[in-house]
């Protein structure tokens, strides 16, 4: 693939995020990746069309199957994650759906961490359940025995987030991968919150990595995308009868994907699944994603630093009952986070206001820089009240059990100046205190006095 072989692993991440995968494939030598906004591609003749249909990796035919702009993004992300290849689809949800439907069939079983993005949880519980694919959720993903105990005879995937949304738990990838592999099962991780800059799960034993590319990979918050990266090392044919679509079903040439595609067997099967279900990305969004990736390391490094400063500051505030950020020593996964995420623990954290929902409402109404919305990984700072949005289908007891109370707010830290963001948080806390009448006994002395009155965002 153009670009990849020119960039040996000795090149640093910051160099590869600019160069990998996007050199030398445009007929006019365009240096920026062109947007191939076309539904289809001309065949030279019938034999050419026949060849491209028989093996979509030999040439483009129709954008639902593949597109040069999407392919450039796929090569770059595969390079950054250290995978053998990647598949770009229309959203993070499409990536999870496509990856799991490549592995699983009706009657199969998933074991998943219960602390995952709520949309994924509902996808597994409700939609996959309807298709006859059942899921058991592990409440304590730190405990390998809990994963082990949930595995049954039809379990075909372990699923977790490397940094969990919304409370920031960190997955012990080597430990959970060891459990999975002992049972001949792949570990599939959603690494949206970590990004390949902070963590490369394939190097730690995960088999398949998923991202919502709508988030940090893009960063600008303008286009949706999802990506699946294949580590290329899982032995799909090790246990006869398993992973039928990848290892047993034969194509027109009489061979299975394992026989035809080798280390890319999962990826090529996933491309066929995507071609049939149709979650294709727009070439325009693939272009926007490539633009975003070029600054990934700079953004995530700075966002992580700012998040750490904000989380530490919030933890000192009397209006705040608790802060969930693995970069803080108070987080139960702090030691693991420092070990697996030495470059930073990410830009997302949650904190709980002692004044409950009224405090959260007052806070959200009064902040000027933090935009209330359901998105994350943006260059702008965002705030969300999970109990009334992403987690609205859960009852109070359930919310209490998972620690997503009425006073919990999820923060995605952007690229604004850290001092301005702390001033905005202080404004929100003031409002929360005024609204709930919760007057802390010991007001800290470092409350910023000159809060900006107007903000040009
Ligand atoms: C961790 C995680 N995975 C997947 C998704 C779904 O991604 P998308 O919105 O691109 O479908 C989200 C969305 O918030 C997420 O936070």
Automatic annotation (TrEMBL):
<comment type="similarity">
    <text>Belongs to the trans-sulfuration enzymes family.</text>
</comment>
<protein>
    <submittedName>
        <fullName>O-acetylhomoserine (Thiol)-lyase</fullName>
        <ecNumber>2.5.1.49</ecNumber>
    </submittedName>
</protein>
<dbReference type="InterPro" id="IPR006235">
    <property type="entry name" value="OAc-hSer/O-AcSer_sulfhydrylase"/>
</dbReference>
<keyword id="KW-0663">Pyridoxal phosphate</keyword>
<keyword id="KW-0808">Transferase</keyword>
<dbReference type="GO" id="GO:0003961">
    <property type="term" value="F:O-acetylhomoserine aminocarboxypropyltransferase activity"/>
</dbReference>
<dbReference type="InterPro" id="IPR015424">
    <property type="entry name" value="PyrdxlP-dep_Trfase"/>
</dbReference>
<dbReference type="InterPro" id="IPR015421">
    <property type="entry name" value="PyrdxlP-dep_Trfase_major"/>
</dbReference>
<dbReference type="InterPro" id="IPR015422">
    <property type="entry name" value="PyrdxlP-dep_Trfase_small"/>
</dbReference>
<dbReference type="Pfam" id="PF01053">
    <property type="entry name" value="Cys_Met_Meta_PP"/>
</dbReference>
<dbReference type="InterPro" id="IPR000277">
    <property type="entry name" value="Cys/Met-Metab_PyrdxlP-dep_enz"/>
</dbReference>
């Amino acid at each position: 693939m153009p670009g990849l072989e020119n960039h040996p692993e000795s090149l640093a991440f910051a160099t590869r995020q600019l160069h990998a995968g996007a050199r030398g494939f445009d007929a006019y030598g365009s240096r920026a990746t062109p947007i191939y906004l076309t539904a289809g591609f001309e065949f030279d003749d019938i034999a050419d069309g026949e060849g491209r249909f028989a093996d979509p990796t030999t040439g483009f035919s129709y954008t639902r199957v593949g597109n040069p702009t999407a392919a450039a993004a796929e090569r770059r992300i595969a390079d950054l994650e250290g995978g053998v290849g990647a598949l770009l689809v229309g959203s993070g949800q499409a990536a999870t759906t496509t990856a799991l439907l490549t592995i699983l069939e009706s009657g199969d079983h998933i074991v998943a961490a219960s602390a995952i993005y709520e949309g994924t949880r509902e996808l597994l519980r409700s939609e996959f359940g309807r298709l006859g694919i059942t899921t058991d959720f592990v409440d304590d993903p730190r405990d390998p025995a809990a994963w082990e105990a949930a595995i049954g005879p039809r379990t075909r995937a372990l699923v977790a987030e490397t940094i969990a949304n919304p409370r920031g738990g960190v997955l012990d990838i080597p430990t959970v991968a060891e459990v999975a592999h002992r049972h001949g099962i792949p570990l599939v991780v959603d690494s949206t919150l970590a990004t390949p800059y902070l963590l490369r799960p394939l190097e730690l034993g995960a088999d398949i990595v998923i991202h919502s590319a709508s988030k940090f990979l893009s960063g600008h918050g303008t286009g949706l995308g999802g990506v699946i990266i294949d580590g290329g090392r899982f032995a799909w044919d090790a246990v006869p009868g398993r992973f039928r679509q990848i290892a047993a079903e034969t194509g027109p040439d009489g061979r299975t994907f394992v026989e035809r595609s080798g280390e890319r067997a999962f990826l090529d099967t996933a491309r066929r699944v995507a071609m049939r279900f149709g979650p294709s990305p727009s070439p325009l969004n693939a272009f926007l994603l490539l633009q975003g990736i070029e600054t990934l390391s700079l953004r995530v490094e700075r966002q992580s630093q700012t998040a750490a400063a904000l989380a530490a500051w919030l933890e000192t505030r009397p209006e705040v009952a608790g802060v969930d950020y693995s970069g803080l020593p108070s987080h139960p996964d702090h030691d693991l986070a420092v070990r697996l995420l030495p470059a930073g623990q990410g830009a997302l954290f949650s904190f709980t206001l002692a004044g409950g929902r009224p405090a959260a409402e007052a806070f959200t109404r009064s902040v000027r820089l933090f935009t209330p919305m359901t998105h994350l990984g943006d260059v702008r700072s965002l705030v969300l009240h999970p109990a009334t949005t992403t987690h609205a289908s859960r009852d109070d007891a359930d919310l209490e059990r998972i620690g997503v109370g009425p006073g919990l707010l999820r923060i995605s830290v952007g690229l604004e100046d850290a001092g301005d963001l702390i001033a905005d948080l202080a404004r929100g806390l003031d409002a929360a205190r005024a609204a709930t009448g919760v007057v802390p006994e010991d007001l800290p002395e470092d409350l910023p006095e000159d809060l900006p009155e107007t903000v040009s965002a």
